[in-house]
Amino acid sequence: MKKIANIEFEDYPVFLAPMEDVTDPVFRWLCKQYDVDLMYTEFISADGILHGGKKGMRKLNLVDEERPVAIQLYGKNVESLVEAAKIAERSNPELIDLNFGCPVKKIATKGAGAGLLRDIPKLLEITEKVVTAVNLPVTVKTRLGWHFDSIVIEELAEKLVNTGAEALTIHARTRSQVYSGEADWNYIKKVADNPKVTFPIIGNGDIDSAIKAKEAFDLYNPDAIMVGRATIGRPWLIKEIKHYFKTGELLPEPSIKEKVEVAKYHFEKSLELKELRPAIVQMRRHYVNYFKGAPGIKPLRIKVLQANTPEDVYNTLDEIVYNFGDFVLDRNYSNSK
Questions:
Q1: Is residue 44 within a helix (H) or strand (E), and if so which, with residue range?
Q2: Which of 30, 123, 185, 229 has its CA 20 to 30 A from that of 290?
Q3: Is 336 a domain residue?
Q4: Distance CA 233, CA 179 (A)
Q5: 146 and 31, same structural domain?
Q6: How far apart are CA 167 and CA 54, in angstroms?
């Protein structure tokens, strides 16, 4: 794939998946330092935007340093998604992405996210009307189907081509799987190899190493891959992947000292852009992975998770460096599940 609409990419593009409470502007900006090709906002409720909800409106704030970036919207009402897309367009993202894949019960069972896989005509209507309503390229992210006995992705991809959508991201699980089991990339290959599917296909699911990323391209023929949960507390994974594509060599795992430097930078930027309490709390899920695996580190990892002031955070991070700074995690451990 050379481009989506008018956005050009290098060979083997790697995208950062939209993740609620993860892919905020700070994390997106951090990942941009590690060569990610395209990023997505956290998913944003169309109804929330229309009602002027502070959380949703805040998610529309973009910075030039993170571009290219897509704003991802979700909802179940055609008119609401159309109007929300018009509002999102004012933030001048490169893309509008429609979320038809969120498996969370309170969203999917109410007919939004992956719930629209049970109403394909409505899913297609939403896509077509949003495409018509905005001047930006519109893309779609979805799953294989609602359940194993209702996998619809091949037929759906063919129909989405006719809506004017510019690309399709496939998370290779059903909604009923949520994030359990293994992603089945064979379906991604079927769609990618289908001559009736003429837009780019982005593969998503279980990419947690440079080797798996290369295998995904080699075996399943996507135009791009999307990396998600494996980047939490490990944003350098994207750089590892890009380096492996270019050289065939694996970059060494960062030492604990190097990871602390990244964690401090991450936290510092969070303090700049967020209120104190959210900045402290939202970093905790990253700390879990930043310092995972070093023998004996658990008490200090718990300590940084419980820190409630910037001083306590920084002091604990310094303590981690003092005790474990030279430790390098075995790559096989870091890539295991």
A1: strand 44-45
A2: 185
A3: no
A4: 18
A5: yes
A6: 30
Rounded Cα gap, residues 203 and 220, in angstroms: 9
Q: How far apart are CA 287 and CA 80, in angstroms?
A: 37
At 165, list the tokens: 């959508």
Residue 146 shares a structural domain with residue 41: yes
Q: What is the CATH number of the domain that holds 290?
A: 1.10.1200
Q: What is the arithmetic mean of pLDDT over 177-193?
A: 94
Mutual angle of helices 78-89 and 120-133, in 10-degree steps: 30
- Catalytic residue IDs: 102
User: Per-residue pLDDT tens for 210-262?
Assistant: 999 999 999 999 999 999 999 998 999 999 999 999 999 999 889 999 999 99
Residue 319 CA to its chain's centroid (Å)? 31
Final residue before a domain boundary, out of 184, 215, 247 = 247
Q: Given a cut of 70, is residue 67 above it in pLDDT?
A: yes
**CA distances (Å), origin 101, targets 88, 182, 198, 210, 242:** 20, 16, 21, 25, 27
Q: 3-state DSSP call for residue 85?
A: helix
Residues 11-28: tens digit of each pLDDT: 899 999 999 888 998 899
